[in-house]
Amino acid sequence: MRSGSEALSMLAVPLNVQILHSLDEEPTPLPDLRRAVGHPPVTTMRSYLRRLTELGLIERHREDDFPGSVSYAITGQGERLLAVAGVLQGWLRSSPEGNLELGETASKSAIKALVDGWSTGIVRALAARPLALTELNRVIPQVSYPTLERRLTAMRQVGLTQPEAQRDGRVTRCEVTPWLRHAVAPLTAAVGWESQCIPSKVPAPGRIDAEAAFLLAIPLLELSPELEGTCRLAVEFRRGSDLDFAGVTVTVVDGQIRSCVARIEGKPDAWVTGGVLDWFRWMRDLDGHQVEVGGDSALANALVDGLRGTLLRVPKS
User: Fold this and answer.
1) What average pLDDT score do residues 58-77 get?
2) Which of 164, 217, 246, 294 could bridge 184 with an S-S bond, Cβ 3.0-4.6 Å?
């Protein structure tokens, strides 16, 4: 499982979302909470409440006025996860199949297909270029062919991938859809939430996550026609005392994205570098980031402003 998957998987479960929304107003006694979410079986309710408590999303309080009675309250981490749910809901409503709502069967299938594609590296691979299933199997050898086939089929069925527009007559390749590109918004929101709220309980963001996010989002940008040059967008990862960097180099000609490749070597005209949480804070106009911008500031800021708009804007259906 990759960074961001835990948060999205939790939000794919209707009961988790219902519990968090029900507690968003005020602490609620257990009987009232169970009634508010549709009277699920007691054992089911307790299981979900236990998991949400373990993750620090809700708190359990014993009431003094009646022995044995308890109430639950949402925490700051739970409130921040609801913000991620808002980003995810905005993306679901732009589905090519029509508006999807959190809690529906169709939305659960779409989120699961996205998480499965993200976790296996399918999203990263297809974001770089269209691939046939056999080619994907060579790129991701650690995942079995049948598993890749099932997950690619699920992604196609919900509208995350489609056959390549141009075919060579021999091999049908899959490419990402605009809807999957816009999924960079809930994906990065989920990664940011995990990095801030439960870093010790989930995998840390890594090279594949950073590359996938940039490769998905960059083709969506609309830039001014006078912009031209190359820009490196890099994320800094700290592994103990060691530093690692991952990202992309973007080439812009006459305001058009000519290429976006997962390489950060060379001498670009501009560059933007920062840690995972620094990027997260900066892209959401939050204080406390330490992102370094160098070289052609007009080009660098135009790309980053475009990325910020892509991550904050709810795409139209």
Assistant:
1) 83
2) 217
